[in-house]
Amino acid sequence: MISTSVYVDQEREQVLSYLPMNHEQEWDFYFSNVDGKPGSFYLDMGLKDVAPVNSMPHFFCVSLKMNDPREDGLSSDREYDTLIEIENHLEDGIKDKRDIVYAGRLTFNGMREFYFYTADPLLVEKTISESLVRFPNYACDFEVKDDKEWLYYLDFMYPDPRQVQSILNRRVIDSLEKNGDKLTKPREVNHWIYFRSIEAREKFIEQVKEKGFNIDGVETLNDREFKYQLRISRVDGVRHRDVNQYVLYLWELAGELDGEYDGWETSIEAE
């Protein structure tokens, strides 16, 4: 069985820094609408658990103009390798600096913006400038803002709850594919939801039954705030668009009833 779980990119080196010791990197991406244009965020979601970091109160943005973007303003396959090389050099430049952390990037409107938090903006500017010397064909600008509360990260970069659930859905699907699943076969998908009250759980059951979900079990767990557990299932497709459709429906319905959607799992159907 494959279930919703946290994915941590272990290939990215953990840097000794001013970050709290409990910080665990969790790199992922998602698409969003930015100023009415399509955008793609790639960020360390693990920073949310430690933000704001008081010792790094400055937000530093490197805005790089892409040379060969797609018509919609996102990056093209033709420029992909060069953009990754630039990003790697930026990260290599700061990896030994304790007072700089790379928070992520945004691609939109023909630009790629790299975001850092730091205790020393001048050090970041010097380090980044040195890293970009080998890419003279790219125009870039720097911007520094005071951001003690890390609002650029928490309110702008970080996905909203609905987007987080979509990211979790994709992680499960990625796990299925890595295990040889072609995602072509519909199969039973199991869901867990928790509620503060029995009444809310019953209202939820009433509505999901109309959508063809099976009620597989109810339990009361007295050691948690949302103690009224519900397990449901239905045979469904597991492509990302399909999963988002029914999982986000359940997630939203649970929220309307002051409940918590806790995730889903399904079997691997390798061919």
TrEMBL record:
InterPro entries cross-referenced by the UniProt entry: DUF695, RraB-like_sf, RraB_dom
Domain DUF695: 25-158
Transmembrane segments: none
Location of the Regulator of ribonuclease activity B domain: 168-266
Protein name: TIGR01619 family protein
The organism of origin for this protein: Chryseolinea serpens
